[in-house]
Amino acid sequence: MSSTILSARDLQFLLFEWLDVEQLGSRPRFAEHDRETYDALLALCEELATEHFAPHYRKSDTEEPVFDGEKVRLIPEIATALEAFAKADLLGLTLDEESGGHQLPHVVASACMAWFTAANIGTAAYSFLTVANAGLLLAHGTPEQVERFARPMLEGRFFGTMTLSEPHAGSSLGDVLTRAEPADDGTYRINGCKMWISGGDHEMGDNIVHLVLAKLPDAPAGTRGISLFIVPKWLVGEDGAIGERNDVALAGINHKLGSRGTVNTAPVFGGGAFTPGGAAGAVGYLVGEPHKGLSYMFHMMNAARLGVGMSATTTAYTAYLKSLHYARQRPQGRPLSDTDPGKPQVPIIQHADVRRMLLAQKSYVEGALALNLYCSRLLDLQASALDDDERVEAGRLLDVLTPIAKSWPSQWGQESNSLAIQVLGGSGYTRDYDVEAHWRDQRLNPIHEGTHGIQALDLLGRKVLGGGGAALLALAARIEETVARATGLGGEPATHAVSLKAMVDRLGEVTMTLAGLGDPERTMANATVYLEAAGHVVVAWMWLEQLVAVGEKEGDFYDGKRAAARYFFRWELPKVAPMLDLLASGDTTTLEMREAWF
Q1: Integer Cα distance of 377 and 382 in angstroms
Q2: Which ranges in 384-490 belong to alpha helices (H)?
Q3: 63 in catalytic set
Q4: Crossing angle of helices 491-515/470-489, nearest 10°?
Q5: In the beta sheet, which residues pair with residue 188?
């Protein structure tokens, strides 16, 4: 049932009662779309996710991909679901019309895609990687590369990957060893081994297009020497016909804790398994200019980070709804005020501690979903800006919010998933229910596309201090606008506004303290605490925004929003104060720790 995948009512509220997505139609880029378009598309995605993605979720977890030494085998339901996704023409929702896309607002597309990540993140990942790959080529590839590789991906015939990490280097991309040697025909021969490549091999579609980071012979050291190459599994002729097998093979596949439906591979480029044209190495095509590959790849990675945040949110959201459904159905115990053992047991949702766990989950997932959609709307403002000032402001806010939007749902989504298991009790610890699988799926999100710690360094070091604090000031100004509107409402919103304003001011003071330490290592030593504190402040802001949108509206849905906001401000926001105290002290405990002491 879709009632345990995602909340259509919550999406309607966030899109149309809060973010006023219909107003985007006044901008030329989105003028062809209206509420009727959005509602029809959201309904279609709910239907497809419910009928084609959710039913094989458990099977794709228990029957994970198999590599027989030659081919990767997936359960057939994955290909069937992805074919339905492609036939519905969902692969180019936000892309320009001239590129074959629909120019749909990112915020609506994000809400649509949330249905698929909630229903089955393992299957959805193949399409999302493909869309990101094609989007990069549309932005940085040549017309020939777009025609030969991007268009077949957007038609659902080819799949795509992002191929960055290597076994020895991990996230340290400046240390990649994969080499690219120029060939006489203008192509390159790629040689090297990669690791952790999602969707890196399978038998779906006609081809797999790898976007590979590699270094040319004359490359400068470090990240400034990285170039980007298209390396297809099968060579493609100028007429689009599939040719001979490229020298791309697998050393093996990785067996993951969760998200098992997405095969994760260790590909080898130029290992000699195949020799296209009799030459050693896999045939590759340079994207853009030499040595600028990492900047191009960030076009894909920044979108991927926002996508990870949404995946983390929806993985927690569906587990919350499933635990809520269980709590309403499962009878156990009686109210503390009723000691008569002859009375029938009550559903566990009537017990205060179960409601506490459900309310915590609700505050996490609905707060995170609001943040995800807010960031997507910033993408729309950036893409359709009416002037340079609006474009710069949207970009500045996106810069500071992206590491939070990626990491906060990943961290607190894990806590939410844990609470979902706890609501089910012993049943939650068995494979008879999905919540344990969602918990395992969730554990990937603080790791991939930049770990929790890397996002923290990015937020504090690059986005806040690196820009002289301009991004943080822009964020604070936007929050203070919300505070002013909430104060004008009086009552509970005004009370929460006072709490939020105090915490924003304190965050600014602590940031200044960190900036003045004069020791970069000491400043950055506790960056993860800074990320977590800023994240809680931002999600509290999202809840205050929702309260303002609720206003005086009546009904269970709106009362639920008020209760979740109350929980976040009373139970969660106070956790920020001791984190900021720690940061202000410039604590050096982690710096002083020595390897031998562990």
Answers
A1: 9
A2: 388-424, 435-442, 452-457, 470-489
A3: no
A4: 160
A5: 182, 284
DSSP state of 347: B
508-512: list long-range contacts, CB under 8 Å, 24+ apart.
508/472, 508/476, 509/584, 510/580, 510/583, 510/584, 511/464, 511/465, 511/469, 511/472, 512/469
**What six digits make up the tokens of 123?**
């299957």
Q: How many residues does the chain have?
A: 598
**C-alpha to C-alpha distances, 327 to 320, 331, 437, 448, 486, nearest whole angstrom:** 10, 8, 18, 32, 34
Question: Model confidence over 164-174: pLDDT tens digits?
Answer: 999 998 888 88
Task: Give percent of the chain with pLDDT exceeding 70.
Answer: 100
Helix (H, G, I), strand (E, B) or coil at 131: helix
Single out the catalytic residue among 449, 532, 545, 572.
Answer: 449
Report CA-CA distances (Å) from 412 to 253, 312, 320, 404, 572.
29, 9, 12, 11, 11
Q: What pTM, to 2 d.p., does this model score?
A: 0.97
Q: How far apart (Å, rounded) are the C-alpha atoms in residues 326 and 501? A: 38
Q: What pLDDT does 371 receive?
A: 98
Task: Please say whether the beta carbons of 485 and 496 come within 8 A.
Answer: no
Least Cα distance to 196 among 447, 454, 403 occurs for 447
